[in-house]
Every structure is written in C-alpha cells, then in structure tokens.
Write a structure and sequence with these properties.
alpha/beta; eight-stranded mixed sheet; six-stranded mixed sheet; 30 helices; binds 1,4-dihydronicotinamide adenine dinucleotide
Amino acid sequence: MENFKIDVDADGIAMITFDVPGRSMNTLTSGVMREIPEWVERIKSDEGIKGAVLTSGKTSGFCAGADLGDMAGGMLAGGSLQDAFDAGWRLNGALRALETCGKPVAAAINGLALGGGLELTLACHYRVVGDSPKIQLGLPEIKVGLFPGGGGTQRLTRLIGVQAAMMAMTEGKSFRPNDARGAGIVHEVVPVGDEVEAAKAWIKGGGKAVQPWDDKSFKLPGGGPYHPAGIQNFLVGNAMIRKQTYGNYPAATNLMKAVYEGVQLPMDAALRVETRYFIKTLMTPQAQGMIRSLFLSKQELDKGAVRPAGVPKSDPKKVTVLGAGMMGAGIAYVQALAGIETILIDRDQESADKGKAHVEELLKKRLSRGQIDQAKFDALLGSVTATTDYDLIKGSDLVIEAVFENREIKADVTKRAEAQLAPGAVFGSNTSTLPITGLAKASVRPEDFIGIHFFSPVDKMMLVEIILGEKTGQAAIAKSLDYVMKIKKTPIVVQDGRGFYTSRCFGTYVAEGLAMLEEGYAPALIDNIGRMTGMPRGPLEMHDDVALDLSVKIAKQTKEDLGDAYVPLPGWKIVQTMVEDLGRYGRKNGMGFYDYASKPKTLWKGLSDLAPVTIADSTPEMVEDQKRRLLFRQAVEVARCWEEGVIDDPREADVGAILAWGFAPWTGGPITYIEQYGLKAFVEQADAYAAKYGDRFAPPQLLRDMAAKGETFYGKFVGKQAA
Ligand code: NAI
C-alpha cells in the first residue's frame, strides 16, 4: 500500500498510519479509497491482530476529506448509473466492513478530520482526539453542493440524533475537540501527543468491537419518523431547509431524504440508500458547478493559478496600512494573523490607536475561543504599530492605502508614502470606486501602483480583487498575489474600469430591484424573489446595506464623468428623493427602504407613496420569470465585463462573483450559470428581456459569436494564462 502503513506491536495491536506520500495533508484520493478495503481485510483475517488503531502520519492533520476533483470525475467516469453506484459504494462498503470486522478499532485523531476524514473515524468503534485548538471535526460537504457519502448521514445521526446531526450537516458546521465530545461525536479528549496511547489503552481495556447501532438494544437518540418527538424533527427540518435554500440545493433535500429513509432501515440497507442519494446529487448541475467553482477553481486561485510565472516568489514581511478606519483596521488584523509586521498610519494618533483597538478586539475573540494563547495574543498585537509617523514606512514590502474615498487625499498620502519606499516595493490602493489608472497619476512609480480591493468585513470576506492600472507591471501583480496568498485570501485579477468587476456586476442586482420597484412590483415581493434566486438578501435590503446616499454619490459622479452618454437607471428618482428630500440613507441611519427602529426590520410604510404597487400578478410563472431576470441581469454584465477585457478567466469570474457579492452559489457562478443554461438559449432569453426591459439586458456580441460557434468559456479560456 502507498497511503497506509501497518505495524503490529507485541500486544497484537495493528497501527494503521494514514500518510499520503508527497502531500502535506491527507485526502481521500481514489488510491486511498482502493487501499482502505485492503487493510480492513488484513485486520479482519490476520489472526495475530487483536485490534487496530487508525492515526495520521501527518503533522498537519488527520484527513481533510475527499479529493473532490479526483472523486467526482472518477465516480461518474463509468457512464452508467450502476458504475457510479459501485464506485460510490466502494468506500461505504469498506467502512461497513471495518465496523463489522469483529475486532476493536479505535481512531487516534491527531489533527483536523473533515468530511470523508471524519467519516473514516465514525466507522471506528472508539474515537480519541487531541486537545488542540487547531483541530476541527465536521462534515462540510454541503458547502460544495454535496452531502456526506461515506456513511456520515447514517452514523452521525445514530450517534447524536436526527436534529443535531441534520443541523451539523446542513450547516457544514465543525466542532472543536471538547464540543465534539460534549455532542457525543468522540469519546475522549486527551493532551496532544497522547492520542495513540489512549486508543491502545481502550483496546487493552477490553474495548467492544460492536457499534451502538449493531447492538440489538439500539435506539435512535431522539427517535425516528414514527416516534412522536422524532417526527417533529422531520416536519420542522423540512420547513427549515426550504426556508434556508428555497429549493435551490438538491444536496440539502437529498440529505434529508437519505436521513429520513436511512434511519428506518438496518445499517447495511441505510448505507446503500445514502450512496444512491449521494450519486444522484453528484450528478446534478448544481453539485458539478459548485465543486468546480467553490472547490477546484478556488483552490487553483488560492495557489496562484493566475500569478505571472516569470517573477520570483516574494514573501512580504512588513506592510504599511494607510488609514486605520473600518477597512484599514480589518486589513491590519488579517496581516497580523499571517505573521506580517504592520505599520498602521492615520492622520492623528487617536485615529491610529482606534484602529489598533479594533485589531485588539478581534484578537480577543480568538483568545476567548481558545484559538490563540496569551503569548500569541501579545505577539500578534505587538506586531501592529499604530502611528502617524511616515518614517516608519521604511523597509515595507508593500503599502495598502485605505484612507477616505477622495482623490486629493489619496494623492497626498501616495506621495508621502512613496518618498519612504525602496525600489520594487508595491503601493496598493483599496479604493472601491476610483479607477486605478487615475489614482496612479499621483505616483512617481506607476509600474508599482495597483488596486488591492478588500471587502467588508475584512476578517470574514475571503476575496481580494486585484486591479491593474494602465502602467502596472508584472512584478507588482506577482507581489500583490503573493501578499494575498500569505494572508490566506482568494485573489482574482481584473482590469481597471468603472466599478472594476465585482462592484460593477453587483450593482446591477441592486439596480434591477429598483427597476422592479418602479414598474410597480410590491417591495416585499421583490426582496423575496431576490432571496429565492439564492442571493444572500433581496436587492432592496442590499441597497440599504451599501447605503442609498452612496448610490446617489456614485450616480452623480458617473453623470459628471459620462456627460451626455449618461442614462439614469430606472427607479433612480425614487432613491434620489429618499436621500435628498427625506434623509433616508439606508441601514446606516436606520432609515431606508426599511425602518430599522424595531427588530426585525419592517418595510418603510411611505414607500408605497413613492412607488405605488400596480402589479397584482403573483403566479409562480411570474416569480420564476423575475428570478431569472435578476440572475440574467448580473450574468449579462459579467459577459460584458468579459467582452471589455475586465476579466478573462472563467474561474476568476465565477469564484469572484460568489465570494464577493454572493452571486447565487448553487449556480457555480455567473459564467457556469450561462453555460449550464446553454449559450444559445441564454442569448435568446436575454434578447427577450432586452425587448421588454431595455438594452441593459442585450447580450454582448462575444456571447452571440460564442453561441453561434458552440463555444464555452471554460472550454476556450482555462489554462490560457499558463500557456
Ligand atoms: P473609514 O472612514 O472607516 O476610514 C478611513 C480612515 O482614513 C479614517 O480612519 C481616517 O482618519 C483616515 N484618513 C483620512 N485621511 C487620512 C490621511 N490623510 N492620512 C492618514 N489617514 C487618513 O473608511 P473605510 O470604510 O475604511 O474606507 C477606506 C477606503 O476603503 C476607501 O477608499 C473606501 O472606498 C475603501 N473601501 C471601503 C469598503 C467598505 O465597505 N467600507 C469596501 C472596500 C473598499
């Protein structure tokens, strides 16, 4: 075997060490899945083996789960349903054989165990885990459009009951060691390094080789569907899943079905039910799109897929942040966590200190959760210097500018910072709206000037949009990407332009909601339709969140820049009146489309005077059409960005859209949405919307040409940059 080692000790205990060669972390590759039945058979048939301990040979973790690229392709490669089932059953069958091998098997979990990694341990009779804040245990498959297919739906449910298991699996939630023990997922938490000894001690102490569910007296905790309390879980659970997913995620529905049917069956049959639903889910366009974007493409981008190859790798050690406001403080925090020495500069010491206090607050949360200890807390906080002194910039590899969104102020701080920078150091602006080429005019070294656009809140949002000015050089791109990778965020690289990529496309969602409002749709319906598309919130709610006065400011700036070419957006007057006449700025002053005085927020009553409801249609057909309209409007803008050269890699377009503005994740992103819809059908539908609602829906020529030639974005463009 390549991936497992077996050593039998003098007591007859077999140590199974999981150690995939050449990788820093264990994953369930097809090779690993082929080998599991081999060692299971050895434990079962070797009379010298009295029991077994399964552990990891990696210091980085136990097992991070399935290698999805390998697995998804592999399982569906055979072409027939039976082939797919057989491939899916291989792991499930082997794990069932493990738990029924007749000898006690303990898992010594010495690092994080997620997805298939945790499922492997659930098929052991006993689980010991090291007491480390770095260890997480969970089944996060739902996040990539799947659900646990290695017995997790059946074993976790039988261990902790339907309600707790469904919550853990539908949220993809992970547990820290002590929480996992409290929940009943593991048996014992021991000091780091003692896992194997404790596992062996359990075996030597007469550990039982029977799973609870194979014991005749087994009762499902909390009861199953034919139990008065148990049935509630399914009634309420179904409703909750519907509320959370609006039926957009087959994985969630199929997970519920696998649990409902499975808990009524003996384990062998239950596992087969799980495999059937798992394969069925894997075959859906939603799972395929999500796996590609949220797992494979994201991983590629995280590893620098779009980094210019010719520039040597850099490692930013000292980075200055200009502006210690909401964004600057957040950036300082993520830098500190990544081990970067940070100079945090503001116009006065008080403002700089306020920024550092925010870093401290966020670090305290980590301390209280046990993720860092006091010494680490002190070191991380100590790595951030709050100051007004530009001299301290000296020696910085990079400067991130996050001062007020004002050209003059930005120009001034650019000049002052550059005076301190060594040749080759990069200056990145976190501007959200001002084109980079224009800002670079203040720079004496525009080849080192670039946009590094974070999202709010910085500590939670995983994307960073890198924006190239006209003169930005390859070295600045590479260094910026090295920085983004160091702070463990996902980078995309886009060209300069109004709203860059993410803000421009997100803006269309909000604007289309406004158009619907003007047409006479009821505001509650508009936001419900928005949520039903799979967007995180409705367009009016999101408009309130970004602030209505900001919208007015941007519209005015655009009008000034475009002159006669400026066309006001439909519904624009409603927002202008709300801001300029009524002082309704959105969530930030508690008054927007909604009133925020009470919780939950309620729609502002006065809205019906400004935008009377005239559309009475509430048929499902109308809802479907308007859901599609909202997605189409965004997808057309993405295609337009492509045609204009703002983006040129489908992976960046898809991953960026989901991570930056929450573009309905079930689609796999706007490019995948267009492709799964079919380019030809998409162009026809977009033309129909253009005829009805206006030119903003008109598909760009590029899309028409690609549709006519039968091309796809993924077929045509992936790998282009490497070539
Ligand atoms: P903020 O108002 O919270 O912080 C700006 C900070 O810059 C303040 O602490 C201010 O004292 C400081 N500052 C102003 N003039 C300065 C000067 N001459 N020298 C040093 N410091 C100075 O603003 P926020 O929200 O942090 O935004 C900062 C930048 O990030 C803006 O360009 C904004 O467009 C951009 N941005 C904002 C996002 C958001 O959601 N708020 C998202 C992405 C980018």
